[in-house]
Inverse folding.
């Protein structure tokens, strides 16, 4: 229960932990679903951390979730990484246009959108050469839109009438929540850019993403030296048990489930 304030309605509830989970869980879950296609047997990560902050022109606001965020997840090793970027300051400078997309880095090159049709994926070879258009099988959908498909499956009682199984949605949603847990555990000990850079290690793509945040902020006139980063701890995770393990596991596991207010309680077993 919270006293009502104007920033909750109709949309900004997304930026408060009691009600939402930031942009990573808002638009982000749709892209997380696609990103997991590129990871064989990619259900839940074995390691996760998050870095970011709420970087604004006019000082702090009432919201809690980051508007610039990296979520970094390992799926069994450092060569199987899902890297998620939230950059809420795009579209405010020509060098940083708005972009909602997925890029797949492989040993042989990069797969990303770039074809003639919107959303068409192309393969760009590692050593140059002409990009190749990917032949992708059209998905089989019972109904074109997710909402009527779900409602229809409830009516028919046939799981195959739903466009996506609930277990798949669970994994994609969890890949939004887990980086947020690292972020929230790091919020009590803010740092600067140098500390954030040290925390990401030597992975080229992760470093570039952190630099995107820094450069995006600089381009729109934010003071780089005066910005405070949240550097979340690296957390280990057991995908089968769906529990954190190792250092700070007790704190992290408490955030896997919210404290519900009766009678609005989601039971442990459904």
């Amino acid at each position: 229960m919270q006293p009502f304030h104007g920033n909750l309605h109709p949309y900004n509830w997304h930026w408060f932990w009691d009600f939402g989970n930031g942009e990573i869980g808002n638009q982000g879950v749709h892209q997380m679903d696609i990103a997991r296609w590129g990871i064989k047997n990619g259900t839940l990560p074995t390691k996760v951390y998050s870095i970011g902050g709420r970087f604004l022109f006019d000082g702090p606001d009432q919201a809690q979730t980051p508007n610039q965020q990296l979520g970094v997840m390992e799926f069994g090793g450092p060569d199987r990484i899902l890297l998620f970027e939230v950059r809420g300051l795009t579209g405010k400078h020509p060098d940083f246009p708005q972009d909602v997309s997925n890029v797949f880095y492989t040993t042989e090159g990069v797969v990303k959108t770039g074809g003639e049709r919107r959303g068409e994926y192309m393969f760009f070879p590692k050593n140059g050469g002409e990009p190749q258009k990917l032949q992708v099988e059209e998905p089989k959908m019972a109904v074109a839109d997710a909402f009527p498909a779900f409602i229809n499956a409830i009516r028919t009682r046939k799981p195959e009438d739903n466009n996506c199984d609930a277990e798949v949605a669970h994994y994609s949603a969890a890949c939004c929540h887990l980086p947020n847990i690292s972020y929230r555990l790091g919020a009590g000990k803010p740092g600067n850019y140098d500390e954030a850079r040290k925390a990401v290690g030597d992975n080229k793509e992760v470093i570039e993403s952190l630099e995107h945040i820094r450069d995006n902020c600089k381009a729109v006139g934010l003071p780089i030296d005066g910005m405070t980063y949240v550097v979340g701890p690296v957390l280990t995770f057991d995908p089968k048990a769906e529990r954190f393990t190792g250092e700070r596991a007790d704190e992290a596991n408490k955030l896997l489930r919210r404290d519900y207010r009766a009678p609005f309680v989601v039971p442990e077993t459904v």
The longest helix spans residues 166-186. The radius of gyration is 20 Å. Residues 139 and 163 are 9 Å apart (CA to CA). Residues 6-104+164-254 form one domain.
